[in-house]
Amino acid sequence: SKGDYEHYMLKEIFEQPSTIKNTLFSHLNLENSNIHFENLDELKEKLVKASRIIIVSCGTSWHAGIVGEYIIEELARIPVEVEYASEFRYRNPIITKDDIVMAISQSGETADTLAALRYSKAQGATTFSICNVFNSSMARECDFTAYTYAGAEIGVASTKAFTAQVAVVSLLAIQLGLERNEITQERANSLVEEIKTLPSVVNHIFNTDEHIKSVAKNYTQTTSFLFLGRGINFPIALEGALKLKEISYIHAEGYPAAEMKHGPIAMIEESLPTVIIATNNEYYDKLVSNAQEVKARKGPIIAVVNEDDSEMIHTADFVFKVPRVSDMLQPIVAVIPLQLFSYHVAVLKGCNVDQPRNLAKSVTVE
Length: 366
Ligand code: F6R
Hints:
This protein is of the alpha/beta class and 366 residues long. It has 15 helices and 10 strands. Helix 6 (111-122) links the parallel strand 3 (99-105) and strand 4 (126-131). The protein is globular, with a radius of gyration of 20 Å. The two termini are 30 Å apart. The relative contact order is 0.14. The structure holds fructose -6-phosphate (F6R). Fructose -6-phosphate (F6R) is lined by residues 58-61, 105-107, 110, 113, 157-158, 242, 246, 362-363. The active site is at residue 361.
């Protein structure tokens, strides 16, 4: 039930501290912080020695896949490719028995993702899924499944499933990094200790919900948005744009921030707001200069920044503040205000957020 919440989507956004926690602690020993994936043992060797990992997925789960690409390549140094399942399955891709094909799916039933897995399996690849539904088709058919424990997701727009997927992928990357000797036990421990704080960090962001709602009031008449992010926050720009599109029917595009110059900058004017994810990392200065370029063309800016931000707050029209965490862990934190923003814009516009027009929760036909 929705309990005290007006919509399932809002309830599911607010459940994230506990769904992230449940997911983490299903794969993490609380006492010694060791990461473990049940039944992975026989596959572990294959995974550790994999020549590459190909992630196949759709929609929001595809965005979790890009986060996975960045984290796995950074920590485990295994080449990762992220593919739209629909494109992958039809283009005669090159797959070998040394490949690991990993599906990321909330439902475990998405037709294109399932077909991509079956195709890969037939080519001899090892198949792996990250699923939220126990015993779903993908979980049954894959060589190995790591579950997310987000609980049933009712709202059509995926929120808590996404952060749970990113949590699993992060733990997996750390474990692979350790097994492959690409990261030290020390780095792994410090990441794990920080990961454990994410539920309370996310909870803390909810204190800004009223502010996010008041900012949303300015954008109910807006027809188009640009979302920019860089590095590990690039997929969060895509996800912020997708959330806004699907529940508020406002056109939105997510771009890697540096790509702005290669086209989208032509669109910038007073009526086109840009959402810039500018939490502190090595790209911060570059994002500040992107913001200045937007401002110089009179484009309004909403920026997701850290609480101790010093520069973006002077450039942006509005900021959504989030606590500062390590670069690798920023996606789970940065996505929260964007979920809330799209929710509030949609509600203020009178849209049916739990059942947006034309969308199905699980796309089991092509
Ligand atoms: C977006 C959304 C969809 C799904 C996509 C994949 O909010 O819900 O884009 O992410 O249909 O679904 P799963 O993860 O069930 O394979």
